[in-house]
């Protein structure tokens, strides 16, 4: 495992920026160990929902965690608004950095993560395989 601290800057799409790290560092598996910072827009798929819900304003990231694979991320986040109300859910595209986001990733070069359809859950679920560096 190799750790990688990141700082994302204003306007970056949180999910897209994290997914791009795998290509940049030529790895096929990573975990977001923790993230803090702020968003101006959060697109979250709430528990049990089919579509994402948009939240706008000065949003503080209280926690961010999840897994990253070349075929998608599975990220959960909790954010608080300016009144201290907290909401959390799955991170979808369209979460934009307001001032900064600081993230600690664990890159896993010996593993390959994939998202494959699971008949029981109905979702693309994590499949973990050893990574052959000949790939």
UniProtKB/TrEMBL annotation:
Task: Answer yes or no on keyword Ligase.
Answer: no
Q: Which GO terms describe its molecular function?
A: DNA binding
Keywords recorded for this protein, A-Z: DNA-binding
Show where the PPC domain sits: 1-129
- According to its UniProt entry, this protein's organism is Undibacterium arcticum
Superkingdom, taxonomy of origin: Bacteria
Q: What is this protein called?
A: PPC domain-containing DNA-binding protein
User: What InterPro entries does this protein's entry cite?
Assistant: PPC_dom
Question: SUPFAM superfamilies per the record?
Answer: AF0104/ALDC/Ptd012-like
